[in-house]
Specification:
The protein has nine helices and five strands. With about 180 residues, the chain is of the alpha+beta class. It folds into two domains: about 70 residues, Winged helix-like DNA-binding domain superfamily/Winged helix DNA-binding domain (Arc Repressor Mutant, subunit A); about 100 residues, Arc Repressor Mutant, subunit A (Orthogonal Bundle). The strands form two sheets. It has a three-stranded antiparallel β-sheet with strand order 1-3-2. Strands 4-5 form a two-stranded antiparallel sheet. Strand 2 and strand 3 form a beta hairpin. Helix 1 packs across helix 3 and helix 8 crosses helix 9. The chain is elongated and about 55 Å long.
């Protein structure tokens, strides 16, 4: 095999690897693809551009990141959920809101262990994606899930099974401790 044929084979392999990665980890971003597939930034950018032009992927910009999705699989709310599930702090906040049903910002700050300003920033992003609602309760703001929890559970089970296992175990332990204290 000569050098030109070898380069063509590598290009095809990289395109297939990137497309497979996006199918397995929807809402991934450029640096994540680069890092986890161990390819150069330029190679990742080139192939992502080609996959988009070929109509195989699409992307959504949120802040500084472009989140990549396979074409035709996810609706907007699912894409929004996957973006949040792909980000550790935002995901922790969303899952805490699901667990606690109606927590205040102070509750979230204490549970997650980050600053009030950081929680506020993440909360505003999650609200802008339509995933939670903010309600005034006296001097407190409280947050509630604005989507069917079945979507969240299905997406976690299918695309983030390790996170699902940890979270479901934690919720089960909470229920067990509540039932034992009665």
């Amino acid at each position: 095999m000569n050098v030109l044929e070898d380069n063509k084979t590598n290009r095809i392999d990289n395109v297939d690897r990137i497309l497979k990665f996006i199918h397995e980890k929807p809402a991934c971003h450029l640096r994540q693809i680069k890092k986890e597939l161990n390819i150069s930034m330029g190679t990742a950018q080139h192939h992502l551009y080609k996959l988009e032009k070929d109509g195989k992927i699409t992307w959504v910009r949120n802040g500084l990141y472009k989140y990549y999705f396979p074409i035709g699989i996810f609706q907007e709310k699912e894409r929004n959920l996957l973006q949040i599930l792909n980000q550790e702090t935002a995901r922790d906040i969303l899952l805490f809101i699901v667990e606690e049903k109606n927590p205040s910002q102070s509750d979230i700050v204490n549970a997650i262990g980050i600053s009030n300003a950081a929680v506020n920033w993440h909360i505003s992003r999650i609200i802008s994606l339509g995933l939670i609602n903010e309600n005034k309760d006296g001097k407190f703001k409280r947050y509630r899930l604005n989507i069917d929890s079945k979507y969240l559970i299905a997406l976690m089970m299918n695309y983030y099974p390790s996170i699902w296992n940890i979270w479901s175990s934690r919720v089960a332990e909470t229920f067990l401790s509540l039932s034992q204290s009665e």
